[in-house]
Amino acid sequence: MASVLLHVCCAHCAAYCVRHWRERGHRVTAFWYNPNIHPRQEYLLRLEAMRALARAQQVLLIVSEQYDAVRYFRAVAGREGERCRHCFELRLSRTAQKARELGCDSFTTTLLISPQQRHDLVRAVGQGVAGDSGIPFLYEDLRRRYSDSRHITRGMDIYRQQYCGCFYSEWERYTGERVE
Questions:
Q1: CA distance to 12, 43, 72, 175, per residue, from 111 (Å)
Q2: pTM, two decimal places
Q3: pLDDT along the chain (180 residues), means of 10
């Protein structure tokens, strides 16, 4: 059975993704590395929701050792218009590195289920990281299954976030102003 390290950013997106990759014959391990999530309280709420989902779905969850927000801000400062690229590179590079450490056959991300993410960018970054790391990136457009993922978690009484995660997405969500 092939193994995949699944970068997870929230429980509601992870729910269907775990099922999807298992149904395709993969042994799934979830990996939490999200220095972009701001503020820290939001990070902790999402992490606890992910822990609850991991218990419910009986999936191993590996949590990165620290909340690394400073690293995220250093990666995007002055490049806010391209922040998603830098954020994806940061998170997917760390995921590929962890996949190599664990001996996984491939890596992927729950970002691929979100209708709010730029799939062309996620795919390009994932494939670039795969080329650099030697660990294959599994790409599949799962956006049509987004409501399935939310349905899986509906009765679980876990935290449901209101924005992508970063300071800028929070700003855009609540002000309606685009940060460039």
A1: 11, 16, 17, 23
A2: 0.95
A3: 96 97 98 96 96 98 92 94 96 98 98 94 98 97 94 90 87 86
